[in-house]
Structures are given as C-alpha cells and as structure tokens.
Amino acid sequence: MKTLIVEDDFISRKIMKELLAPLGETDIAIDGAEAIQAFRIAHEERRPYDLICMDIMMPNMDGHEALAQIREYEKERGIAAATEAKVIMTTALDDPKNVVEAFYRGGATSYLVKPITRQKLMQEIRSHGLL
Predict the structure, then answer these.
(1) Which domains does the chain possess?
(2) Would you write out the chain's pLDDT as a tens digit for each of its 131 residues?
(3) Gene3D superfamilies, alphabetically (predicted)?
(4) Which of 37, 49, 53, 104 is most buried, most CB within 10 Å of its CB?
C-alpha cells in the first residue's frame, strides 16, 4: 500500500508515519499545496497513492481545499470513484461543519478525530479494503 500523510504538526506526522510505515511506502507532505504536488507526481509516475491521511487545519492550503483539488484531478483524468484514492481526513475538531465539508463537499472517504490510535486507524483502513 502506498500512503501519503498530509500533516503540518511534527508530532502528529511522526505518529502517523510510525503507524503506517509497516504497511508499505509512506510519503509526507506538510500542507495541502505540497500534498497536491505529491499526488500529481505519483500519478505521473503511474504509482498513485492508495491512501491519503490528511489533516484539515493546515497553513497555506487546508485539507478541504487540497481534497477538492485532488478529486478534481481524478475527475479530469476519468478515474472512477471505485479506484480513486481513499482519503481519511484527520482533525482535532469534532464538529458537524467539518464533517459535512469533508464528506459531502470534498469527497472524503472517511473522517477520524485526533488523537488517532493504531486500533482506530487500522479499523478504518480495513473498512475500505486496503488491508
């Protein structure tokens, strides 16, 4: 499994990397703009990400905007919904506005509230058929 972790906080990034590294190749982006760049490069190299774990609140470009651009990129290239990257939005905010934004407007696959435990993350990954 190839994973992109998009997280501006060093400690959160480190924890996510430790949890996901045993499952395969893991790349890191520190904001939404860097995530879009990594996502496009992966597609150009014909090695797209299977999973993207993306924080919502980040400087420069937040997770909502990055997700919208990722989904637009997939749509422009005719990537079917069944084969698009699975995107788990992560945030410290457990409020309805962010849930609606992530799922209904952004096309997120799922949503996890921090702190993220190994058990919660693995359960979410399994539920999407990635393990």
Answers:
(1) 3-127 (3.40.50.2300)
(2) 999 999 999 999 999 999 999 999 999 999 999 999 999 999 999 999 999 999 988 999 999 899 999 999 999 999 998 899 999 998 877 666 666 666 656 688 888 888 899 999 999 999 999 98
(3) 3.40.50.2300
(4) 53
First to last CA, the chain: 8
Angle ∠(117,120,123) on CA atoms, nearest 5: 140
Q: Which of 1, 48, 52, 53 is nearest to 24 (CA)?
A: 1
Neighbours of 56 (CB within 10 A): 23
The burial of 61, by beta-carbon neighbours within 10 Å (0-12 exposed, 13-18 middle, 19 or more buried), is given as middle
Q: How far apart are CA 106 and CA 84, in angstroms?
A: 13
Alpha-carbon distance of 25 to 69, in angstroms, equals 23
The residues near 6 (Cβ < 8 Å, ≥ 6 apart) are: 28, 29, 30, 31, 32, 34, 35, 52, 53, 54, 55, 58, 63, 66
